[in-house]
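Need a sequence for this fold. Nothing fancy.
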């Protein structure tokens, strides 16, 4: 079982959308468990039919109490989230090895999944650190703007520092909301491609990808589908190694 985290501390980069699209595409090839580790619960809102059910067993119970009871969706399982998860950060402060709670919880579940795919909050909080320390690989979506590039620089610096405490494997960088007719976007993409990491084909702006969380429909144009297929192919290859 491999664990893949999709993370970026900058919001609005298409992180949750990318997780949702990958869950949608990967589940036809392998057995996948999704984990919504963001208190905003956008991934849960995307897939759950009853996201506001007070009796829902969420990632809060999984992280704090190791209670594993995922939602059984049509083609994959999902550990949902809600605002209760926001209180986990306060509770974790006084816990030993708090950054490793998720890793330990994942070790306690049935190992019959090929892949665990984690959506993280847009911050470098203890929740995000839990996801990073539990991961075998990390994908970083980056908006092709200067602020996106600056945010990535900081994130890579943090991940480099964390190598002292965990094995950090960056599977690749996913440029998002790309507009090829805009010079700045092309310049940012060129700078991304100088980094010592795999840079996947950019996902265009104003495509079905951008609105997937809102519409829940995934009628991708050819360019976007090619970009997503490239990521899916690489993830499947990585899972099977």
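Here you go.
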């Amino acid at each position: 079982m491999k664990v893949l985290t999709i993370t970026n501390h900058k919001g609005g980069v298409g992180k949750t959308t990318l997780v949702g699209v990958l869950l949608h595409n990967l589940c036809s090839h392998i057995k996948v468990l999704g984990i919504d580790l963001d208190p905003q619960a956008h991934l849960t809102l995307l897939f759950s039919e009853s996201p506001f059910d007070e009796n829902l067993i969420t990632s809060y119970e999984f992280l704090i109490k190791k209670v594993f009871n995922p939602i059984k969706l049509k083609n994959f399982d999902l550990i949902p989230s809600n605002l209760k998860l926001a209180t986990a950060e306060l509770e974790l402060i006084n816990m030993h090895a708090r950054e490793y709670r998720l890793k330990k919880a994942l070790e306690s579940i049935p190992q019959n999944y090929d892949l665990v795919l984690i959506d993280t909050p847009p911050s470098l909080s203890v929740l995000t650190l839990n996801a990073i320390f539990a991961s075998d690989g990390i994908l970083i979506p980056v908006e092709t703007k200067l602020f996106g590039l600056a945010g990535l620089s900081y994130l890579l610096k943090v991940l480099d520092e964390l190598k002292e405490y965990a094995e950090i494997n960056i599977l690749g960088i996913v440029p998002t909301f790309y507009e090829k007719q805009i010079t700045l976007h092309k310049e940012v993409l060129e700078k991304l491609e100088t980094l010592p990491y795999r840079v996947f084909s950019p996902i265009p702006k104003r495509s079905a990808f951008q609105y997937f969380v809102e519409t829940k429909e995934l009628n991708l144009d050819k360019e976007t589908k090619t970009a997503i297929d490239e990521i899916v192919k690489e993830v499947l290859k990585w899972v099977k190694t």
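For context: The chain has a mean pLDDT of 92.
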